[in-house]
Amino acid sequence: MLALAAAGAAEGTWLRAERQTAGKGRQGRAWESPIGNFYGSTLVRLRPTDPPAPTLALVTAVALEEAVSTFRRPGAGRGRRVANPSSGPGLRRGDVLLKWPNDLLIDGAKLSGILLERSGDAVVVGIGVNLAHHPDLPDRPTTSLAAQGVTVDVTTFAEVLAESFARWLSRWRSEGLEPVRQRWLDRAHASGTALTARLPDGISHDGLFDGLTGDGALILRLADGSRHVIHAGDVFLI
């Protein structure tokens, strides 16, 4: 996608792989990529009036949460999209939570990953979602929609996600970051959730989730009552 961007590809272009042989996540981590999961990238062309480019991570997260939450377990809609996934059995709003900076969790287990890469005015938004399989990681629990009893066709999921992302990208442009930030907070774990934040310099902070700043940074309330603002790092539920 970076090569296509350099060649003049238009915003809204999507690429999807059936599998990846060199998939990567944030900070260069390997991303296991068996057939059956979703691996896709889309292109955003930045405009002078856009909100800050890093906040596209929040846009992607809320779009992804919306897309995932439109699917139910087979017994409640036969595995198809439903208009109101919060009612009846299946994936409910309370099942799927966002965790800063860009993780989607089901019952505390990681379902997906998001990676932003920028070149000039082009931002490539990479998304991986465990639809059929999930890896066994040493540092965090993981899950897949299949493990939750949800069968999702990859092509169908791609269509739903593309629609959701386009809608939230449009709102980010026309209304600014605040509606995206509020949606993120509505779909995140509760205020006061205990977190550990590991910063790029190796320092770790334990504290309680205290919301997001206006530009989307994490606010962590420490034991002494002070508030620490985090712009980059890995965050784990305690």
Strand content: 25-35%
Strand order across the biggest sheet?
11-10-9-8-12
Whole-angstrom Rg: 17 Å
Uncertain runs are 74-91
Query: Average pLDDT, to the nearest integer?
Result: 87
| Class of secondary structure makeup | alpha+beta
Oligomeric state of the chains? Answer: single chain
Number of helices: 4
Number of strands: 12
Give the topology string: H per helix, E per strand: HEEHEEEEEHHEEEEE
From the N-terminal CA to the C-terminal CA, the straight-line distance is: 36 Å
Largest β-sheet summary: 5 strands, antiparallel
The gross shape turns out to be globular
Helix percent reads 10-25%
In short:
Helix content is 21%, strand content 27%. It has four helices and twelve strands, in the order H-E-E-H-E-E-E-E-E-H-H-E-E-E-E-E. Strands 11-10-9-8-12 form a five-stranded antiparallel β-sheet, with no helix packed on it.
Task: Write the topology of this structure.
Elements: H1 2-6, E1 14-17, E2 38-45, H2 56-68, E3 96-99, E4 103-106, E5 109-110, E6 112-119, E7 122-129, H3 154-175, H4 178-187, E8 194-198, E9 204-212, E10 218-221, E11 227-230, E12 234-237
Helix pairs in contact: 2-3, 2-4
Written overview of the protein:
This protein has 238 residues and is of the alpha+beta class. Helix content is 21%, strand content 27%. Strands 11-10-9-8-12 form a five-stranded antiparallel β-sheet, with no helix packed on it. Strands 1-2-7-6 form a four-stranded antiparallel β-sheet. The longest helix is centred in the C-terminal third of the chain and has 22 residues, at 154-175. The chain starts with a helix and ends with a strand. The relative contact order is 0.16.
